[in-house]
Design goal:
It is a single chain. By secondary structure, the chain is an all-beta fold. It is 0% helix and 57% strand. It has strands at 3-7, 10-13, 18-25, 33-39, 46-51, 57-59, 67-72, 77-82, 91-101, 104-109, 113-118. The strands form 2 sheets. Strands 2, 4, 5, 6, 9, 10 and 11 form a 7-stranded mixed sheet that branches.
Length: 119
């Protein structure tokens, strides 16, 4: 059974920091590309950051220079370090695991963790 479990969300003041974690089980974690998405109330889900199985990273323009995605394959965990948080970063943050098995794209989602940034 595949599980992605996020943790680390909460309430923080603007300018503060949080570190989100996503612990994976039931998959060969090192083979998966991992990503963080977020969805603010009333808005569409947006991609925040990605890290490939090889460790290459990419970020949404809105978080570049403030957020850092990383992974620890020994712990089957992906992290999102969020610094200089802004009220507009308030959203439910979810992690995503993706791989290709033959021609099939396989995707798993976590349940999400709420991040609220107060002004």
């Amino acid at each position: 059974q595949v599980q992605l479990v996020e943790s680390g969300g909460g309430l923080v003041q603007a300018g503060g920091s949080l570190r989100l974690s996503c612990a994976a089980s039931g998959i060969i974690f090192s083979s998966y590309n991992m990503a963080w998405y977020r969805q603010a109330s009333g808005k569409q889900r947006e991609l925040v950051a990605t890290i490939t199985s090889g460790g290459s990273t990419n970020y949404a323009d809105s978080v570049k220079g403030r957020f850092t995605i990383s992974r620890d394959n020994a712990k089957n965990t992906v992290y999102l370090q969020m610094n200089s948080l802004k009220p507009e970063d308030t959203a439910v943050y979810s992690c995503n695991a993706e791989t290709w098995i033959s021609i099939a794209r396989v995707i798993y989602w976590g349940q999400g963790t709420q991040v609220t940034v107060s002004s």
